[in-house]
Amino acid sequence: MNRPAPVPTELSRPFWEAARRGELVVPQCPACGLRFFAPEPACPGCLSREWRYAPSAGRGTVYSVTVVHRAPGPGFDAPFALAVVDLDDGGTLLTHVDAGDPDHVLIGLRVRVDFRALTDEITLPYFVPES
Ligand SMILES: [Zn+2]
């Protein structure tokens, strides 16, 4: 699928650097233990600014899904499935899920991360059905 490349920010740069290495990381707060996404300046659970990225095995379950039929901007291929995935090791991700046909992405579907290089700089963590 084509889409415009995300532009890393100071907060998200470690996420994109890890994805380029084929690793999934999510913000985790050592003060309250919360894993959250997207990265924010402060933990949404306790407002600590001391959160760090923690590794995830990249397996989970589709919590909710929508099929986007109208491209949100130039450069997107539509339709595509956009889902909230509950990660087995904690936290959730808003992410693309590629099951071939977007209508095949259903709540409860088991998925795993699948890294796909979009540009030389950006590798996107997609999710695909667990095999
Ligand atoms: Zn916290």
Key attributes of the depicted protein:
5-stranded antiparallel beta sheet; two-stranded antiparallel ribbon; 37% strand; 131 residues; binds zinc ion
Report on this structure.
This protein has 1 helix and 7 strands. The chain has a 5-stranded antiparallel beta sheet. A two-stranded antiparallel ribbon has the order 1-2. The chain has one helix at residues 13-20; strands at 24-28, 52-56, 59-68, 80-87, 92-97, 110-117, 123-129. By secondary structure, the protein is mainly β. A hairpin with a 4-residue loop joins strand 4 and strand 5. The chain has one domain. The model has no long low-confidence stretch (mean pLDDT 95). Zinc ion binds at residues 29, 31-32, 34, 43, 45-46, 48.
Please give the order of strands in the largest beta sheet.
Answer: 5-4-3-6-7
Bound small molecules, by name, code or SMILES, are: zinc ion
Name the beta content range.
35-45%
Cα Rg: 15 Å
Q: What share of the residues lie within helices?
A: under 10%
Coarse structural class: mainly beta
Count the domains.
Answer: 1
- Uncertain regions spanning at least 5 consecutive residues: none
Please count the beta strands (DSSP E, at least 2 residues each).
7
